[in-house]
């Protein structure tokens, strides 16, 4: 059974940094594509970044140049380094995974496994 556990959220001032972690269990190695998604208050969930199982990484335009995803396959962990944070980055951040590769997608509908989320709050 696939389980995803996020950590690393918190409150920071604008311009600050946070690093999120997503520890995965129930599968091994690079057999799953993984991604970070976020849901701002009162808005729909949106894709932030996806690292597919072949290592291809894509980012939402709103975070390009500020956020960096990385994956440690040996630890089954996905990271999200978030720099130059803005108040509009405030959201619940979720980790997700699925078995496909090569879809080049940030659509939450393409992911079947989800973590419980971790809150990120950026104050101005």
Please tag this protein with its features:
124 residues, mainly beta, 11 strands, globular
Structure in words:
It is a single chain. Helices cover 0% and strands 49% of the residues. It is mainly β. A hairpin with a 6-residue loop joins strand 4 and strand 5 (46-51).
List the helices and strands and how they pair.
Elements: E1 3-7, E2 10-13, E3 18-25, E4 33-39, E5 46-51, E6 57-59, E7 67-72, E8 77-82, E9 91-98, E10 113-114, E11 118-123
Parallel strand pairs: 2-11
Antiparallel strand pairs: 1-3, 3-8, 4-5, 4-9, 5-6, 7-8, 9-10, 9-11
In a nutshell, what does this entry contain?
The chain has 124 residues and is mainly beta. 0% of the residues lie in helices and 49% in strands.
Mean pLDDT: 94
Gross morphology: globular
- Percentage of residues in DSSP E strands: over 45%
Radius of gyration, taken over Cα atoms and rounded to an integer in Å: 13 Å
* Residue windows where pLDDT falls under 50 for at least 5 positions: none
The span between the termini is: 40 Å
- SSE succession: EEEEEEEEEEE
Annotation, overall tally of beta strands: 11
Which percent bin holds the helix content? under 10%
Annotation field: number of helices = 0
Strand count, sense and barrel status of the largest sheet are: 7 strands, mixed
| Secondary structure category | mainly beta
């Amino acid at each position: 059974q696939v389980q995803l556990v996020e950590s690393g959220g918190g409150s920071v001032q604008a311009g600050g940094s946070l690093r999120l972690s997503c520890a995965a269990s129930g599968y091994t190695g690079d057999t799953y594509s993984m991604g970070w998604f976020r849901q701002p208050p009162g808005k729909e969930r949106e894709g932030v970044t996806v690292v597919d199982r072949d290592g291809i990484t894509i980012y939402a335009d709103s975070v390009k140049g500020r956020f960096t995803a990385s994956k440690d396959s040996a630890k089954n962990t996905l990271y999200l380094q978030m720099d130059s944070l803005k108040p509009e980055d405030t959201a619940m951040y979720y980790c997700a995974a699925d078995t496909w590769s090569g879809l080049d997608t940030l659509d939450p509908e393409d992911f079947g496994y989800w973590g419980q989320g971790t809150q990120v709050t950026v104050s101005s």
